[in-house]
Design brief:
Elements: H1 11-27, H2 33-50, H3 53-62, H4 64-85, H5 112-122, H6 124-147
Helix pairs in contact: 1-2, 3-4
Length: 151
């Protein structure tokens, strides 16, 4: 992971994306959910683009320390702004919430984590979403782990 020619682990990005979806479901009206999701994906793609050639050009021109320093300051500023402004539900900041009434917490307390997992596993499409991508990703990771690694 992270070596020459490899791609970084995307697991942490998936966790952040799911968290963003949860926030978007409460902060945005249902008709705006697709827009919020698309904008988040757009920001991720822009970040990936700037992590390529533009970042390399900046590092070549200015050196890696100033570029990483500015990147760290910008990331910290954005993180601090999110920490100050964003809450789990907009009602905590005095705004209208767009949470679905069932998602507001009615009846979820007694179910627990295992009950929630059982409910997800009872949904038929969960198994399709587990097996199909799992089969594709599993074979790619197995192949690349066994034969595509540098010696």
């Amino acid at each position: 992971m992270g070596g020459r020619g490899s791609t970084p682990d995307r697991g942490s990005v998936a966790v952040a994306f799911v968290g963003m979806l949860k926030l978007a479901s409460r902060w945005f009206a249902p008709r705006q959910f697709a827009l919020a999701t698309g904008m988040a994906l757009f920001c991720g793609i822009v970040g990936a683009v700037f992590a390529g050639v533009p970042l390399r050009l900046l590092v070549t021109a200015l050196g890696w320390r100033p570029v990483m320093g500015v990147s760290a300051v910008l990331a910290a500023a954005v993180g601090a702004a999110i920490w100050v402004v964003v809450r789990d539900d907009p009602e905590e900041r005095g705004y209208a919430s767009h949470a679905h009434p069932a998602a507001a917490g009615a009846g979820d307390e007694g179910r627990g984590v295992l009950g929630g997992i059982a409910e997800v596993l009872r949904y038929r499409n969960t198994w399709l979403l587990l097996l199909a991508p799992g089969g594709v990703v599993g074979s790619v990771l197995t192949f690349s782990g066994l034969w595509a690694s540098p010696s």
